[in-house]
Amino acid sequence: MERIDKVVATGFGCSRKDSRGVILRGRVLVDGIICRDISMKVDPDTNLITVDGNDISFKKNVYIMINKPKGILSASNDKSRETVVDLVKNDFPRDGLFPVGRLDKDTTGLLIITDDGDFGHKVISPKSGIEKEYIVTLDKPVTDADIAVLEKGVTLADGTVCRPAVVKPYKGRTVVSTTITEGKYHEIKRMFGVVGIGVNELSRIRIGKLVLDVQLDQGQYREISDEELALVWK
Ligand code: URA
Questions:
Q1: Which 3 state secondary structure label does DSSP give 105?
Q2: pLDDT at position 94
Q3: What's 93's DSSP letter?
Q4: Where are the alpha helices (DSSP H) in the chain?
Q5: Cβ(186) to ligand 1 under 6 A?
Q6: What CA–CA distance (Å, rounded) separates 71 from 90?
Q7: Which of 8, 33, 178, 228 is most buried (CB neighbours < 10 A)?
Q8: With a threshold of 0.85, does the pTM exceed it?
Q9: Residue 74 CB burial class (10 angstroms; 0-12, 13-18, ≥19)
Q10: Is the CB of 203 inside a 6 Å radius of any atom of ligand 1?
């Protein structure tokens, strides 16, 4: 069950404060009866909820795929800098949106933004072992010996042990595909640092079997369908 003011805010696309005004003015019907109780609990799956006679379909959670642009922070909000949530919030006016995991400020590519905390925790938990694939542009070619080291799992300078990665030439040996199953701080950059290679560009293209939509330019986003969402766990 959900509070009617939350359901109206989400379904009607307004703030929680405005939704209370809409309810108090008698514009909302629940199963055909005017509801002026802003704290009434409703079941959006079974109750018919209308505003000014229009059915408002309510989705409990939203899942957005964004191609994160360079220079934008992977965070919900920040005092002075623009965040990925700032980019989507006009089209998705919901409380509690957050990015699932963090990409560095200069990293681009696939990021999921949601208001589903359980989903977010499961995706980033190392226990789930979900693959994340990146296209990595290096400052020099990677050798077979380097790949063997990375695929065994490296130990970083501070003692952090990384799980084995999968590294494959993508466009020659300076642009490689790298797949990891966890998300330690600056993991890819630090892993390549161990074999003496710098990372010039980093872009995530896949989470599980969910692939970044090639139609999305940097900064563009769209909702993820239920079928696509299931691919995260495959
Ligand atoms: N690894 C990094 O070093 N940076 C990212 O943004 C993601 C993975």
A1: coil
A2: 82
A3: -
A4: 4-12, 16-24, 84-88, 117-124, 144-152, 187-194, 226-231
A5: yes
A6: 20
A7: 8
A8: no
A9: buried
A10: no
Residue 180 alpha carbon, nearest atom of ligand 1: 8
In whole angstroms, give the CA distance from residue 191 to residue 154.
7
122 touches ligand 1 (CB under 6 Å): no
The structure tokens 């805010």 sit at: 9
- Counting Cβ atoms within 10 Å, is residue 4 exposed (0-12), middle (13-18) or buried (19+)? buried
Superfamily of domain 2-55: RNA-binding S4 domain (3.10.290.10)
Architecture in CATH of 131-207: 2-Layer Sandwich (3.30)
**230 Cα: distance to centroid of ligand 1 (angstroms):** 24
* Mean pLDDT of the region 59-71: 94
Pick the residue whose CA is nearest to atom 2 on ligand 1. 186
